[in-house]
Write a structure and sequence with these properties.
Layout (H helix, E strand, L loop, with lengths): L4 H5 L1 H10 L5 H9 L6 E5 L7 H5 L4 E6 L2 H11 L4 E4 L12 E7 L9 H10 E12 L6 H8 L5 H10 L3 E10 L3 H11 L2 H10 L4 E12 L7
Parallel strand pairs: 1-2, 1-4, 2-3, 4-5
Antiparallel strand pairs: 5-7, 6-7
Helix pairs in contact: 2-9, 7-10, 9-10
Length: 229
């Protein structure tokens, strides 16, 4: 398990970040087109403090969140109440039965590609035939956010990550979003939990308004449906 220091250490700032992300709903529109979840059983892997769970719960038959960090599990349970089940667990050991869900969703949880094989195998195990895994990750090829990300992670190779998912049988769609902040304090606080100090200061100086273009990748793979005679 790779820690997520932004949300683990600063969950209140990350809540403000979540509200600013994808201000125009581009990711949700792409997800809805690729893997509609109305009436489906949904599993959100790495659900954090549950920010995205209510969106799924508004239409899905059932929603389950999985998160390894105990503090975030409690925050997620407080957010969703009884309408969603939230487990403390990791992606490599999902606490749900074989073939029990229609959609496995993971957002900004599989950045590094190689090394994620156990989690992908677990997603395959819990999917019903015809179900899908949808992975939403930041697209580090898109400036300026991708430039700052790669400055902090000089060994990160987005081309190799994309090749990894292609080899694993995923399709890929690039999504350009807008992060829109209510004020300058929120924008600066978010950039300072996302990047090291020197990179964050560079990002703050380079961002003159209250909006920021940020690219994402949507990777989708379906489990083969059972063919009946």
């Amino acid at each position: 398990m790779i820690p997520s220091p932004n949300i683990w250490k600063w969950p209140d700032v990350y809540e403000r970040e979540n509200r600013a992300q994808d201000a125009d709903g581009a990711i949700w529109a792409a997800l809805r087109e690729a893997v509609p979840w109305a009436g489906a059983d949904v599993l959100d892997v790495g659900c954090g403090d549950g920010f995205h769970l209510p969106v799924f719960a508004a239409e899905a038959a059932s929603v389950t969140g999985v998160e390894p960090h105990s503090g975030l599990v409690e925050r997620a349970r407080e957010r969703v109440g009884a309408q969603v089940t939230v487990h403390r667990a990791g992606a490599a050991a999902l606490p749900v039965p074989d073939g029990s869900v229609d959609l496995v969703h993971a957002r900004t949880a599989y950045f590094f590609g190689p090394g994620c094989e156990p989690g992908l195998a677990e997603a395959q195990r819990v999917l019903r035939p015809g179900g899908a895994i949808a992975i939403v990750d930041l697209d580090a090829t898109v400036a300026p956010y991708g430039d700052w990300m790669r400055a902090d992670l000089p060994r990160y190779r987005p081309d190799l990550v994309e090749q990894f998912f292609e080899r694993q049988g995923f399709s890929m769609r690039r999504i350009l979003t807008t992060w829109r902040f209510p004020d300058r304090d929120t924008l600066e606080a978010v950039l300072r939990i996302e990047f090291s100090r020197p990179v964050a200061e560079r990002a703050v100086a380079a961002t003159t308004g209250l909006a920021l273009p940020v690219g994402y990748r949507l990777h989708v793979r379906r489990k083969a449906a059972i063919r009946r005679p």
